[in-house]
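Structure, all two chains, one model.
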Amino acid sequence: MIPDKYLLLPLAIAVPFITGLVLVAGGRRLPEGVARVLAWLGFVVPAAVGIYAWMTYTLPTADNLRGLQLTSNFSTGLDYFGISLRLGLNGLSLPMFVLAGIVGLAAGSYAINSTVDRKNAYLGLVLFMVSGVCGVFASMDLFYFYFFHEFALIPTFILIGWWGGPGGRAAALEMTIYLTLGAMLSLIGLIALYSASDINSFSLQDLQNMANTPTMGAKTQHHIFGLLMFGFGILVSLWPFHTWAPAGYAAAPTPAAMLHAGVLKKFGLYGLLQIAIPLLPLGLEYWSHTLAWLALGNVVIIGAVTIAQRDLKVMLGYSSVMHMGYIFLGLVCVSALGAGGAALLMFAHGLSVAALFLLGDAIFKRTGTYDMGAMGGLCQKAPVLSGFFVAATLAGIGLPGFANFWGEFSVFLALWEYRPLMMVLAATGVVISAIYGLRAVSRIFFGSPTPAFQTLFDGPIADIRAHERWPAMLLLGTLLLVGFWPSSLTRGIDAALPGAYRPSPTSATPPTATVKPAAPVQP
Amino acid sequence: MDLINILTVILLLPLGSAAIIALFLRRQGKAAAALSVLVGFAIMGLSLYVLESWDGVTLHPTWEWLRFGNFAYSMGFYFDHQAALMLLVVSFVAGWIQLFSVGYMDEDEAQGRFFGGLSIFMFSILGIVLADNLVMLFVFWELVGFSSYMLIAHYYKTDFANMASKKAFIVNRVGDLGFIIGIAWCYHYYGTLDLAELAAKVAAGHALLGSKAAIGIGLLLMCGFVGKSAQFPLQVWLTDAMAGPTPVSALIHAATMVAAGIYFMARVFFLLPTFTQEWIMWSGAIMTAFAGLCALGQTDIKKSLAYSTLSHLGYMATALGLGFPGLAMFHMAMHACFKATLFLGAGSVIHACHHEQDIYKMGGLLKKMPLTGLSFAVASASIAAVPFLSGSYSKDTIITEAFLRGMNEGPQFYVIYGLILFAALCTALYMGRLFFVTFLGQPRSEHAAHAHESSWYMTVPLLVLGFLSVSAGWVVYNWDWAAGKMDWLLPMDTVSVFLDDFRKIEEAAQKEGVAHGLELVAVIVAIAGFAFTYFFYGRAKEGDPLLAKAPGFFHVLERHGWFDDLYDWYVAKVQQRLCDVMAFFDQLFIRFFCVQGSGAVAGLTGAALRRTQVGSLHAYVYWFLAGVVLFCAFATGFFN
């Protein structure tokens, strides 16, 4: 044990924050070279910490997977309320933290190499977002969990408002109001949880320990869970509270869309997974049907809406909304299989949607439009770009080999135990996502260019460039790594699932026998 | 080396070659081709080595892959006699077809992508062959779907390939939707997804095969087969899949991938209740006859062969439905030989004619391409079940069994017999038509007039596979020939997967005394078919004689009975409109009306309240008085 390892997580949060502060404060006075170095530093540190934590966590020698790693505790003058900056990673928050680091690095490196007005301020805000999302998933304290979410959300609004495309202001305003409403509901829920628990602590661990000896009445649980469910639901674009998402992402600058859709949005799901469901089991029981049907709305209704889209970026926004449905459904099952699949899917979806937004922007740079009806034949000019886009699309629709598959499949299996009918309905998403995904590929890359695109097409169009290639490779490479070696994450996830998921419906049936004790080879 | 390690190497070799090609050899087409072929033959050699040193005891190693709570996903091999045979067929046919591709694709710009795709395909199909549980099977099932998509889209610039690749993947996914539900139900019902354990549970009577759940699971698992093996009603993708390069059509869309559905059904045959089997039998038999007829309406040589594949997949399905999975696999293996030969022959012709695929622009090619012509001729005879050629052993046995069932179990089986016998006649008709029009007569175009024999890359695989379409059936039939001299390759136990069903039917037919009669009928049908086509098509100058004589009928066959039009109508008029309505609802009702509406209500309320803050003392005095009145009313209990 290195004695000062406890500083790693605070570093991962502080470095992007401080560099971001310098960039924003320095503005145009800062020389470009210095700004680049600072920004790289701010993006690389969280990713490095995340990968380091992942490596140590998944080594077979990591004996206590259930416990917290890299913990630290700083008093922030709010101890009277049981609040302090408790940081640490367990098997559930680790994937999310790694996700934050990797997507942060990908989005950051893309932002560093893009040309925008007031670039230093732009980079500074992206750095703030990275700092915030790292803080969200490193926090083991509900107050700071919420605090860091808000901290990351504000730069998102500013980025969309200032650097957003046409309609950016309006979209930012709509998103701000809507998300603030969701955040407010969840804040009320969290505070209610705190006061109803009677232990005067915002510490997640304390609260989870308390959950083993239930003290809250059923009525209280119903109300608090309702608040959290709708609050988090708005933040995660649960149907029908999703309309901010496609509009917001369509307007957002690419790094902001990558970080928000990929990472920050998972705040609500992570909150349900770690907080609401384990701490309020009776609340979930009361609400689970409502939540499940709404989540099916995400899959089926939004799936159909996605098929109808012509605009690539709006389509990506809707498809991301659709996939949130699977994660909700996995959580609703309250089984190790469902929750584990949901946790893995959160990770995988974050990477794949970030890759898609990145590549979507790369396509826009070449075609000058997001209208898929005005493209075509791009594969002739940019074969590598199209290969990447096809890979990201197939990852998104759950092709085995990418991490998404294991998550989706687990959710399906678990959902059958919960309600077979719902599983059948949810599984139609397999076809729906194939339709819109492949249709997009076919319209953008295959066939011959449409008349509207022909003039641009005849001019010089470069294939994917280095600053687009490396972030995309980072994202897709991680997806493939986890796709082929899922146990590198799932061992931790499985060990850290709170007790509430343990007496799963699966265990009621005779123990499965798919497992053979002999395991001579691990990939 | 341990056999399990060798099997692992066999599985991972193509994955490695795909990765190397994708990362380093994208622009080095020749190097990619060399690597792919090398790996192909290495797999063939290793497979032969495995079969040679295998003692016939089932290998079943399993590794846990990931675990959530009680549920563990595992990867493993279930290497039994069925898998051994399938491994032999797949690795052997694939190796030769990859060699053929070197010649066929020699002028292609994207050889790296093509051979990378073939490598991914090999990885996926070998995974299906070896898989020991349904999840692993599903994983590789999806991956073959992906590689098929990728290879159909090879000529992505053309609209045809663009549409066909999309269609193939989506239609397959519709089948996989049923498959995935079936897996979930199967796990819930039987408590395991491991093939060996499922078999043990069913054998021990754990689950009644007649129960509703068992029927449901059987039908749902069948959906996967229906998609992949292009059975009714998901057959529409296979003929379009011919948009891919011809070696792909030979390997994936004729010999191995579409046949993997049959293999899958044979693997889980114990899970299929009678009702499911009957469904498979009827849909298979009807498909056999209908697709065989449709093959007569195609002027594109590959499309005609694709309908022939559909027809023969129907034969295999019929064999499955009749309760003989071993016979279905036998026919699958024979079909892999002769259909691969036919497609490669077509490929050789297409390559020689500068990618002309219309048979009425060919002609007289036998003299110019004697090796291609010869192998095409023997494969045609084999597929039409001319006695002692490979096709006759498997195909005639299926027909015989249908007739025997008719004698013993009821007249509905005579209908099956009639359908598949009619399909046998169609086989002779469309194969005769293809051969006579393409290879005999006079050249009908400039390209055909200047065609010449293909390079040895293409002719050697043609001759090898052509030889097998002549001999394979006979060799299998006489495996115990000279007291076990063939056992070095495959033990008799393995071959008996094919032969058990075959012998059973042969004996039954002899006992009933119909064996010779049925054989005679089959021979007459084949010869009559060939003779008719020689006179009807052999002298055609230009254009199809059937088109000239019965244009209406020809168009029905050409359009495949408007199946595609039905699906196109559904996609354009039902699905798309439904989605548009949903999108409209989403924007208008939810976003505009509810969300922005409530935003507007809040805004209007704010505006209304702002009107009260007028800044005039009079107004505030009135508000104050109103407040006082209300307060008094409360205080005096007026509201109670």
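The mean pLDDT of chain B is 86.
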